[in-house]
């Protein structure tokens, strides 16, 4: 089942169960998918990578908004954004733990024979490809930076 069909089914379920938070989150996902599909030059079918990128972008937006709300001491809005992020994350592949990421990044560093911060670009390039959808870029970057220092 494609992501769009799954989202449509879950929207129907959220409407029936009167779950406003899920409904709002799922509508945002559907909207982003439809916008991506109607973008000029895109194919009619989304690849798995495209779906993951869209979902990751939405999660990142929610987390960034939550951080802003938290800094402004608007905790009810912060909680809403974080809850929406959790709902959207449920459609992403299982995220790797920091220890699992560390092991994979160690292998990449050894494979590329990286030894200093000068090699960060090479390591990040390969790590981003290999870990796409399994972790966000910020976490990957933090671990690579610690390992190369």
**The top level CATH class name of the largest domain:** Mainly Alpha
What's the alpha carbon Rg, rounded to whole Å?
A: 18 Å
Determine the N-to-C terminus distance. 44 Å
CATH topology of the largest domain: Hypothetical Protein Yqey, Chain: A, domain1
Strand content: under 5%
CATH architecture assignment name of the largest domain: Orthogonal Bundle
| Total domain count | 2
3D structure, described in words:
The protein has 149 residues and is an all-alpha fold. It folds into two domains: 3-89, Uncharacterised protein YqeY/AIM41, N-terminal domain (Hypothetical Protein Yqey, Chain: A, domain1); 98-148, Arc Repressor Mutant, subunit A (Orthogonal Bundle), CATH 1.10.10. The chain is 74% helix and 0% strand. It has seven helices and no strands. The chain has helices spanning 3-16, 20-38, 48-71, 75-89, 98-112, 120-130, 137-148. Helix 1 runs antiparallel to helix 2, helix 2 (20-38) crosses helix 3 and helix 6 runs antiparallel to helix 7.
């Amino acid at each position: 089942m494609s992501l769009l069909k799954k989202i449509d089914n879950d929207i129907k379920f959220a409407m029936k169960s009167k779950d406003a938070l899920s409904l709002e989150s799922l509508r945002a996902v559907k909207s982003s998918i439809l916008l991506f599909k109607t973008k000029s030059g895109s194919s009619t079918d989304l690849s798995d990578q495209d779906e993951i990128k869209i979902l990751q972008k939405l999660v990142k937006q929610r987390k960034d908004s939550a951080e802003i709300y938290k800094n402004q001491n608007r905790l009810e809005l912060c909680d809403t954004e974080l809850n929406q992020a959790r709902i959207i994350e449920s459609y992403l592949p299982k995220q790797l733990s920091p220890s699992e990421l560390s092991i994979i990044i160690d292998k990449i560093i050894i494979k590329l024979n990286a030894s200093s911060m000068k090699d960060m670009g090479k390591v990040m390039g390969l790590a981003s490809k290999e870990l796409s959808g399994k972790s966000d870029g910020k976490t990957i970057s933090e671990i690579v930076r610690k390992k190369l220092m």
